[in-house]
Design brief:
About 25% of the residues lie in helices and about 25% in strands. The chain has about 575 residues and is of the alpha+beta class. The longest helix has 17 residues, at about 250-265. The radius of gyration is 31 Å and the shape is globular.
Length: about 575
């Protein structure tokens, strides 16, 4: 940290986005000792700069803590004296380059410099931190003719942005403006960075993600507010936006929709029995609670009634009827609960990456967290935003309930549930167990593997034990080795990878894994005879491939062979090991 009478060579410049008209005035520091050029996250956000991949470790002097850059951006710096003088630079993004400790202006009355020089830093941003750090790859290109030295004091050097002051200065016995600069020394470690680029599993996906401001808000909110109950289960608070609209009356709309649901029950007794069983289980497990009469009447801005409806999945092995709650239903003010909630980042790996990784292991291992969302408790202060109406008979009065757990159908539910799962992996005692929990789950489904039966058995036990600590029970274990799984009929147990509870992306794949044959298969239904755009798009979206849709004849030819997908078999294991090393060369 510089905390003596030394001036740093700073310049006030105009930073702008090369692709838009956005611009802002900021302070830049010229540092010929830095091994890179950097820009603050604040400038990136203000200018809405487009990020590119670029993660390096940045260290400071001595034992200063290292930080990781958040990508690379391109921006333009323009002189405040001449708009025709501008340069384009590429800079690594840091959360903060410096903070300013003091804001006393430099007294130059004792310096013997020529008068009326265009000083690059006129002191207008004296209270502002440094937002751009210019490294040697640009610094020496900025130098121009004009250099003056005051004996025993500082030097003034002309650059394209004006004259910068550097060195010792006399300041009447007062300390001058001092900065703590983060990026004094940068450790690029190019060879290591190259290896880490290809070894994608070395770093959890959540740490590689570049968050938007709202996503970062959700992450910070979770870290500050989550806790545990006496049994070790997570307790989370809902991340409400600061600028969220006000809720209006939501009871009236929920009451009307519940009346419509009851009329449907009258026409379909089987649906009613399934729905009733689902809700009774919800109550029995303590996942929702009846609201005392004294607490029912609250301001409509402080409560939200969630309409609910059934989603039927006749082919499901477990729950044929699932109740879904609608957090997007509008209240009387026009605002819904989901309009108030910030949507967190996706912190799990994509399904394609998981399936590709799944093929690397000789032993395949899959499991499922039982009612994952409902294993995470919502803080008592926020439960009134998850109210519902319910009764088991039209002859009974309608009861008011509130859901005690993270609720499917609310905007923030996926983030809160998966973030708790990730945190559980992070706290795991065994590194491999933690790694698997953080990197091998897709929502609530584990898609993992091992190189040997012994390793798979130990991994299954360790993951089960670790997740149980935070109230995440595992079930539906399936493997291609009978000795790993007990009490499962492997003759009829085809693990449908597409049965994971995310409606959109997973059903598009249509993949199944047959454990005993250890192969992937497709399961496609017969297509209809009609040849319309709607039919073509509907049917082609059920498989993981592109098909020709331009000509009717092309579609008819494809349709004749469509059923062949059901006989397609793709071996899961590619007869490699995660320990194998590969090199990809391009010319």
């Amino acid at each position: 940290m510089v905390n003596q009478r030394v001036a740093l060579p700073t310049a006030v410049v105009k930073a702008s986005n090369t692709n838009t008209t956005g611009a802002t005035v900021c302070k830049a520091l010229m540092d010929s000792a830095s091994m890179g050029t950097f820009v603050s996250e604040d400038i990136v956000q203000r200018l809405r700069l487009s990020r590119r991949n670029g993660r390096i470790k940045v260290g400071g002097i001595g034992e200063a803590k290292s930080v990781i850059t958040r990508g690379i951006v391109s921006l333009q710096l323009t002189s405040r004296f001449d708009s025709n003088v501008s340069v384009n630079i590429d800079a690594f993004i840091l959360n903060r380059i410096s903070h300013q400790d003091k804001s006393d202006p430099v007294n130059m009355s004792h310096c013997s410099f020529p008068p009326n020089l265009n000083m690059a830093d006129d002191g207008s941003l004296i209270s502002q931190p440094i937002d751009v750090l210019i490294g040697p790859q640009h610094f020496f290109d900025f130098l121009t003719d004009g250099k003056f030295t005051s004996t025993g004091f500082s030097t003034i050097q002309n650059i394209i942005f004006g004259y910068v002051l550097a060195g010792k200065v006399h300041n009447g016995g007062e300390d001058i403006c001092s900065y703590s600069v983060t990026a004094s020394i940068n450790d690029f470690k190019v060879d290591q960075a190259s290896r880490r680029f290809w070894e994608t599993e070395n770093e959890p996906q959540v740490l590689r993600k570049l968050y938007t401001p709202e996503e970062q808000f959700c992450e910070n909110h979770f870290q500050k507010t989550h806790g545990y109950d006496d049994a070790g289960r997570y307790i989370v608070k809902l991340p409400f936006r600061d600028d969220s609209p006000r809720l209006g009356d939501s009871y009236t709309s929920a009451r009307k929709q519940f009346a419509s649901l009851e009329r449907r029950f009258e026409r379909d007794e089987s649906l009613f029995n399934q729905y009733k069983a689902f809700m009774e289980e919800y109550i029995a497990l303590g996942h929702m609670e009846k609201i005392p009469a004294s607490e029912v009447n609250k301001s409509c801005e402080k409560v939200f009634y969630l309409p609910h409806h059934p989603v039927l999945k006749p082919d499901s092995r477990s729950t044929k009827c699932r109740v879904v709650f609608n957090g997007s239903a509008k209240s009387a003010s026009g605002a819904a609960l989901n309009d108030l909630l910030a949507v967190g980042p996706t912190i799990q790996r994509d399904l394609t990456s998981l399936l590709l990784n799944f093929r690397r292991y000789r032993i395949g291992l899959c499991g499922d967290i039982v009612k994952m969302y409902r294993q995470v408790l919502v803080h008592h202060d926020d439960r009134d935003y998850q109210r519902i109406l319910w009764r088991t008979s039209a002859a009974q009065p309608i009861s008011h309930y509130r859901l005690r757990t993270v609720t499917y159908g609310t905007a923030t539910a996926p983030f809160l549930a998966t973030r708790c799962l990730y945190a559980t992996g992070k706290d795991a005692d065994e590194p491999q167990t933690g790694f698997m929990i953080k990197n091998n789950f897709y929502v609530d489904d584990l898609i993992a593997g091992a190189t040997s039966v012994e390793e798979a058995i130990n991994l299954k036990a360790d993951i089960t034990k670790t997740l149980a600590i935070r109230g995440f029970p595992l079930s539906k274990w399936v493997s291609n080795d009978l000795s790993i799984i007990q009490n499962v009929d492997m003759q009829t147990s085809d693990v449908d990878i597409a049965e994971i509870d995310t409606e959109s992306s997973l059903k598009i794949l249509g993949l199944q894994w047959q454990p005993l044959k250890d192969c992937f298969t497709f399961k496609v239904a017969p297509v209809v005879n009609a040849c319309t755009k709607r039919v073509i798009l509907s049917e082609s979206s059920k498989i993981y491939d592109d098909i020709p849709v331009a000509l009717s004849q092309s579609w008819l030819t494809f349709r004749q062979n469509y059923a062949c997908f059901n006989s397609l078999r793709i071996p899961r294991w590619v007869h490699t090991s995660p320990r194998d090393k590969f090199q990809l060369c391009g010319f």
